[in-house]
């Protein structure tokens, strides 16, 4: 049987958009840090900049439940174009299987432009990450 999604109902991603937006923010901040360090490694970090580090992001992701972690991976795959929104259940199934092979946090942090991929994944479901309240 198919699930009963209507145009009026928001599609259930299995994770809150606020959580996805937070992960996007962390991933983008880490990417910015990597890019800026390549440009000027001697520059002193501004106060509060060290709040976004890999261990903080890793802990945040690892505290999510299995479905939420799978949703992050599946969204990144949708954002990359590996799956269409209509293939969400298939992407989620494969993302759950992928989770058995290692850390979701490590997987996402090693994925190039993961923050942008997650944002694109949300966009495929007509959700703009910039419009999500944090």
Automatic annotation (TrEMBL):
Region (Disordered): 30-54
Acidic residues compositional bias, start-end: 32-54
InterPro entries: DUF3775
Stated name of the protein: DUF3775 domain-containing protein
